[in-house]
Amino acid sequence: ALSKLYLRSSQGALVPLESVVNIKPTVGPLSISHFGQLPAVTVSFNLKPGFSLGDAAAQVTGTVRNMGMPASINANFQGTVKEFEESFRNLTTLLVIAILVIYIVLGILYESFIHPITILSGLPSAVFGALGTLLLFHKELDLYAFVGLIMLFGVVKKNAIMMIDFAIRARREGLDPQQAIYQGCLVRFRPIMMTTVAALFGTLPIALGYGEGADARQPLGLAVVGGLVVSQFLTLYITPVIYLYLERLQSGRERQAPVEKKEEAIAY
């Protein structure tokens, strides 16, 4: 049938197709898919039980790299993996922005650049506890885990605020920094424990994986529970130490400032 086709030449004459091409039967694809006007091949895969999406994407990327394909062939993820990678990048930026916003709000509230650092000093221990718990239970740092980290930041920050706020008020009443933060830890210990225990019992069912679709939400609960447990043991030790250190640093600068002004006045 193809031999009966004719093509029009540049001079306008009709030329048989078989005179310009060799026609022979062969095996080929039924259709050629395109992506962005370029020929493309779609390869799909399903996850095994207990296998995370990030690990699967890393193995696929490593396999493609080891195949040694020509530079003209590009391999890209689409679908769920692409959305996962984009959300991961966006959430990392969102996490940094959240910490900066918390610092700015606390700085405006306390009219100080130092006290927000003291309040945020418990976040590293909370992050360490959350990531360690996810690693212990072989869970991935996915979208739900990031949401858990943001929730965790709010609870840990609130616990530190209760101590520092009491210490600042005690300082205004004439107590020295050591006694002020010590009284803050004693008086605020019960509210801190109540807040932590309430958050723990609220997220514990999610961490244990109860209910339909619990496997997807479990990283959120594990991140919150692990971060709260670790930060609760460390915040009562880390935050007072950092508070005392920064208070002494600020007091040293305040004592040096009048001396410098007096020397300038004498020189004048």
Can you tell me about this structure?
This protein is mainly α and 268 residues long. It has one domain (80-267): Multidrug efflux transporter AcrB transmembrane domain (Multidrug efflux transporter AcrB transmembrane fold). It has helices at 53-66, 80-110, 115-120, 123-136, 143-172, 177-187, 189-208, 214-267, and strands at residues 6-8, 14-16, 34-35, 38-39. A two-stranded antiparallel ribbon has the order 1-2. Helix 7 (189-208) packs antiparallel against helix 8. The protein starts with 5 loop residues before the first strand and ends with a helix.
What is this entry, summarized?
By secondary structure, the chain is mainly α.
